[in-house]
Design a protein that fits this description.
The complex is a heterodimer of chains A (about 180) and B (about 150).
Chain A: H1 4-13, H2 23-31, H3 35-47, E1 53-58, E2 67-73, H4 80-88, E3 93-98, E4 110-116, H5 119-133, E5 140-151
Antiparallel strand pairs in A: 2-4, 2-5, 3-4
Chain B: H1 4-12, H2 23-31, H3 35-47, E1 51-57, E2 65-71, H4 78-86, E3 91-97, E4 103-109, H5 112-126, E5 131-133, E6 137-138
Antiparallel strand pairs in B: 2-4, 2-5, 3-4
Helix pairs in contact in B: 2-3
The chains are: A alpha+beta (about 180), B alpha+beta (about 150).
Chain lengths: ~180, ~150
Amino acid sequence: MLDETDRKIIQATQAGLPLTPQPYQTIAEQLGLTSDDVMMRLSAMQNSGIIRRIGAVPNHYKLGYRFNGMTVWNIPDEFIDEMGQKVGQLVFVSHCYHRPRHLPEWPYNLFAMVHGKTQQEVDKQIQQISDLLDDYNLGSDVLYSTKILKKTGFRTGGRAGGRSPKATPQARNRNP
Amino acid sequence: MLTTLHKQLLNDYQHNFPLSARPYQDIADALDVTEADVLSALTELNDNNFISRIGPVIPPNHIGVSALVAMSVPEQQLQTVADKISAYPEVNHNYEREHRFNLWFVVIASDTEHLCTVIDAIEQETSYKAMQLPMLDDFFIDLGFKLDLNND
């Protein structure tokens, strides 16, 4: 599993790779490693699934995808894996998770985020999920975000002594 | 607005960024431009917030533990409560959503005990109940998101 060096590499890259000609060398120098170490460890973490992908992380909203719906579905427990996998494969779905219900106020156990440039586009996507789930859908809802109050990249959390600055709409954390 | 190079970088490099000594040079070679072109295009995408970064993406719960949390907060108190919650370094997303549960945030902590401590502290500080929705299973196969950038 992950050792301390792996963790340091992840920490050092979570605000993004440096935009310098040799980014892995830049990271390596910060951590007292060689660039080969950094690349080999990133590659190993990618192979083991610790890292899901290495690449650009687009800001959907800024790119015109203003309609972001969190769709939530009530699926019978015995079919959650089968249905979750189907929904997770849809190209317009960006996250798809099984989460616990909280009865009675929250009956939904499948979450899928959808993104579109227009309300109609999102409505069509939701209809597509609904058609796919068919009789396995016992109820659903869609929650649209009205305001981004805070959004930062991955952090392990809890080690920073201080508190982060106040959030503003569309705020983001660029620095490590 | 977005150039062809911007669009190529946005759509073709969400999941195959090179692990090599000069990755931006490799991208430049593949796209028939210069390394300087790639670096300046990525800097522009970054500075204009079209990308939040270029780098490794870690699925939730692979390092540390996290939970999605929902709260139902009266509209007139929402901003105050949201600001208190956003101030926790462990909170990394915080959205207002149109629903009875109108405040949704993600807490990431080093372990379960720490996660519970943070959520307890948030409940105490805000006096609203936190509905905890930890991820039980992840069904998403992340190959990036196909962006339609043609009609911009």
